[in-house]
Amino acid sequence: MSFTGFPKEGLTFLSNIIINNSKEWLEAHKEEYEKYIVSPNKAYVEEMGEHLQILVPHIHAIPKINKSLFRIYRDARFHRLDPIKERIGIIFWQGATHRMQSSSFYMHYDPFEVFVATGIRNFKAPLLAKYRAYIKNDAKRESLHHILEALKRKGYTVPEPQFKRYPVGLVKEDTYAYLYLYGAMYAYTTFPPDATFHSEVIIERNFKIYEDMLDLHQWVYELTCLEEIVQEDL
């Protein structure tokens, strides 16, 4: 199907999950899930994937669950009372590493908010170690700082550092030492699920965001493509 926007019925469906969060309810409403969530999401992946090839020719845009589309079930080990997700995630990633440890263009939405981001939202231990080694290079550290500052000036948000303690032996007086406190590297913006979200124009809006964040994407990609990191998708 061609992408014409995310249907309002999809948000109604997600709102109903908040009230009826169970596998039994989802099974009883499987047809709605396929029609209002899965089908338009697949169409979005195909359409946005073609646009993103302009920025990143080898971007992974695969309209399948556990590829560009996230599964709607949570990990049952930790979510027995709320096994179904109330928000929908979509990801486009670059490189041979695992999608969650690869530089990516990301979006998720729920009935209240659309979240659009670029980068990696959580470094697992091997990638965190690599990141900290990578930014020991003065030029890499400085370039990342300037990329983040440029994004802030454009109105995008860069999360606060996740750590409070610096790695042992670090020169804390360095102008860009704060970068060692990050356990992820991404920038994002949010907006309500408005009329644009429900139309094909959301492609143009999100593409502009990703285009603005391309320098960050490329910096993170250069970090991740040094060696392959394969992590289990939890």
Structure description:
It is built from seven helices and four strands, in the order αααβββααβαα. Strands 1-2-3-4 form a four-stranded antiparallel β-sheet, with helices on one face. It is globular and about 60 Å long. A hairpin with a 4-residue loop joins β2 and β3 (114-120). α1 crosses α3 (30-52). The chain has 234 residues and is α+β, with helices and mostly antiparallel strands.
Question: Care to give the gist of this entry?
Answer:
This protein is an alpha+beta fold and 234 residues long. The chain is 38% helix and 11% strand. The chain is built from seven helices and four strands, in the order αααβββααβαα.
User: What proportion strand?
Assistant: 5-15%
Residue share in helix: 25-40%
Radius of gyration from the alpha-carbon trace, in angstroms: 19 Å
Uncertain spans, ≥5 residues at pLDDT below 50? 228-234
Element layout with pairings:
Elements lengths: L7 H12 L3 H6 L1 H23 L35 E6 L10 E6 L4 E7 L4 H10 L3 H16 L31 E7 L10 H11 L1 H11 L10
Antiparallel strand pairs: 1-2, 2-3, 3-4
